[in-house]
């Protein structure tokens, strides 16, 4: 940009402010067009498919699926308003799932792997976790 143009812009602050306002509005619209995590969030059907691949045993998958259905409805972004539990398996705090991957907030596979490991270590298996859930309404 030439010096003469800069001087004209400075001399005409209305034009400069209008240009800045238009640019800001355009950037704002671009930033709000889609959620930041839209590219990594999966549908319930996709999450179930991932879980089926990771849990090939039908009884274990069914037990895992029942827990996830009750806890989050297969919503990767599910957040419990009162406790802050997060994700498919409602980890509390959700950041526990970081041990399975840094993408724990948005990646269904990471959340499923963490949940499966949790169920196996605490209850012996997803069927053990489901039995506990049925008796207590939580796991």
Average pLDDT works out at: 82
Amino- and carboxy-terminal Cα gap = 65 Å
Helicity level: 55-70%
Beta content comes to under 5%
Low-confidence stretches: 14-39
Which H/E pattern describes the elements? HHHHHH
Number of helices: 6
Largest sheet: none
Shape: globular
Radius of gyration: 24 Å
Strand runs, count:
0
Strand and helix layout:
Elements: H1 3-11, H2 13-32, H3 44-54, H4 58-72, H5 108-123, H6 126-136
Helix pairs in contact: 3-5, 4-6, 5-6
Task: Please characterize this protein's 3D structure.
- Helix 5 packs across helix 6.
- It is globular and about 25 Å long.
- The N and C termini lie far apart (about 65 Å).
- About 60% of the residues lie in helices and about 0% in strands.
- It has 6 helices and no strands.
- With about 140 residues, it is mostly helical.
Task: Write a compact overview of the structure shown.
The protein is mainly alpha-helical. The protein has helices at residues 3-11, 13-32, 44-54, 58-72, 108-123, 126-136.
């Amino acid at each position: 940009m030439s010096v003469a143009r800069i001087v004209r812009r400075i001399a005409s602050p209305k034009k400069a402010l209008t240009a800045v306002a238009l640019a800001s509005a355009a950037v704002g619209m671009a930033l709000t067009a889609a959620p930041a995590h839209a590219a990594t969030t999966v549908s319930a059907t996709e999450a179930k498919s991932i879980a089926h691949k990771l849990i090939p045993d039908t009884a274990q998958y069914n037990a895992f699926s029942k827990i996830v259905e009750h806890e989050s409805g297969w919503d990767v972004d599910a957040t419990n308003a009162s406790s802050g539990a997060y994700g498919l398996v409602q980890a509390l705090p959700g950041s526990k799932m970081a041990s399975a991957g840094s993408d724990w907030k948005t990646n269904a596979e990471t959340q499923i792997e963490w949940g499966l490991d949790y169920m196996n270590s605490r209850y012996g298996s997803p069927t053990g976790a489901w039995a506990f859930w049925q008796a207590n309404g939580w796991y």
